[in-house]
Amino acid sequence: MKKNTGFTLIxxxxxVAIIAIIAAIAIPNLLRSRINANExxxxxxxxxxxxxxxxxxxxxxxxATSFDDLTGANPxxxxxxxxxxxxxxxxxxxxxxxxxxxxxxxxxAGSANKTYVSNGSGEIVTTE
Length: 128
What we know:
- The chain has 2 helices and 5 strands, in the order H-H-E-E-E-E-E.
- The chain is α+β, with helices and mostly antiparallel strands.
- The chain has one domain (9-127).
- Strands 1-2-3-4-5 form a 5-stranded antiparallel β-sheet, with helices on one face.
């Protein structure tokens, strides 16, 4: 007589249930980690613009009024080309004049929870 080998339907259902439980625990943590990474990237972008503005002011005696002023200088004060567009999960905008500037990183819906704003005072303000 030949013995049947393999898994029963009950055994397979138990394995699927265990995998579903593990996934239910892991997926929210993964999503939280991704949001944290996006927020750190947005904060890093704001910091880069602050450093570039400080260097620009030290060199020119005035603040840059647009990202093009910072990226188009020779040598550039800010590396990259898409500063006025979507950068990862954030859109960066900057307004400025000769005496000051404000730069804002606004997240795309669902990609991050925090908006970052800097006005050149050395303090980056976070709003949720």
